[in-house]
Design goal:
The chain is an alpha+beta fold. The protein has helices at 3-6, 13-22, 34-41, 43-55, 57-67, 70-81, 86-114, 134-150, 156-160, 163-173, 176-180, 187-207, 249-255, 322-332; strands spanning 25-27, 30-32, 215-221, 229-232, 241-244, 265-268, 271-274, 279-282, 291-299, 302-307, 313-317. Helix 7 (86-114) packs parallel to helix 8 (134-150) and helix 10 packs antiparallel against helix 12 (187-207).
């Protein structure tokens, strides 16, 4: 089957936008979208350019910073561009690695809860879902994805996270001691450790490139229910931005009872679902935007969260997440 049959212009919006932003087509006083010009004038060259775009490491890295969910994009940008010294850079790399695990966990469990996946079949105890061990989170992610695939369940996260990629993340997880004891090393040793670990992290991020298609957001307001204006939490900038987030009618009816500004949501393959309780947000009185935070552990009857981009933690009452927690409990126990 030829490229002309299978390759559609509308299938590559990111590439098309990239061409338009980087290549100008002008005839007299008129401007034309370069991507459409190339597609229509020479389909084969368009396909070749698309292949180079997809494979180009620099382009991929820019896509991580610009489009990935906020926590991963933020820490990746900080570790590669905005560090103070070797120790700080290594610490930021660790934060990026941990944010991958935390985010994937909240995303996969959130979709499983939304789709009412029979999690009892996994045989994982309820307490494990609240473990602060990254290994436990990775095990649950793998088990849910494997079950969804074998059961023929339409599961958006299976499109984004492949089992071989999880194996790479587990391998990086085994390097935790290198991160944990970095402060005791010299600057030269820290630099050497960074040079050893960074390629592994970058490889994981490349294999998770479809995370750029996941939209993370918080509801802001809506004149029309199916077209709410939301705070988008993608890219390395923590300031967020407001955009219209269209929701399918059937999907909206599934979430309407709890679709408000008290939770964080994700859109995966066109389906919106809540990420509570494992991904939440905090917002100080003087701040205009929400800052994401990850569940870490149960601490004295309250849930303990790590705030992205800040040297602080937050605690929330358990009843803040009662509805989502009860829905998840019903699938696990």
């Amino acid at each position: 089957m030829s490229d002309e049959i299978i390759l559609k212009y509308s299938d590559n919006p990111d590439f098309n936008e990239w061409l338009i932003e980087n290549y100008l087509v002008e005839i007299e006083e008129y401007e034309f979208p370069s991507s459409e010009v190339l597609y229509r004038m020479n389909h084969e060259k368009y396909a070749e350019a698309l292949a180079r775009y997809t494979a180009d490491p620099k382009v991929r890295l820019s896509r991580i910073e610009e489009k990935f969910p906020n926590p991963i994009a933020y820490y990746f940008h900080q570790a590669t561009s905005n560090y103070q010294n070797d120790h700080h850079r290594l610490d930021l790399l660790k934060s990026c690695w941990e944010s991958i695990v935390f985010f994937l966990y909240g995303l996969v469990v959130g979709e499983a809860r939304h789709r009412k996946v029979d999690l009892k079949s996994l045989g994982i105890k309820w307490e494990k879902y609240w473990s602060d061990r990254l290994f436990d989170k990775l095990t649950i992610i793998e088990n849910i994805l494997d079950y969804a695939t074998k059961s023929g369940i339409a599961f958006g996260c299976s499109y984004i996270i492949l089992i071989p990629t999880l194996d790479l993340i587990k391998k990086l997880n085994q390097e935790r001691n290198g991160f944990e004891h970095a402060s005791a090393k010299t600057a030269a040793q820290q630099q050497e450790l960074y040079n050893e670990l960074y390629p592994q992290l970058e490889l994981v991020l490349r294999q998770l490139i479809k995370l750029e298609e996941v939209i993370v957001f918080r509801y802001h307001e809506a004149e029309t229910p199916l077209y709410p204006r939301c705070e988008i939490l993608n890219g390395c900038d923590l300031n967020g931005r407001k955009e219209i987030m269209p929701i399918q009618k059937d999907n909206y009816m599934e979430i309407v009872d709890y679709f408000d500004n008290k939770s964080i949501y994700a859109c995966v393959k066109g389906i919106v679902f809540c990420l509570s309780p494992f991904i939440h947000f905090t917002q100080e009185a003087h701040e205009t935007n929400a800052i994401l935070c990850f569940y870490k552990k149960d601490k004295g009857g309250k849930y303990h969260y790590e705030v992205v981009g800040k040297s602080q933690d937050k605690e929330f009452d358990m009843n803040t997440f009662e509805l989502m927690e009860n829905q998840l409990r019903g699938l696990v126990i």
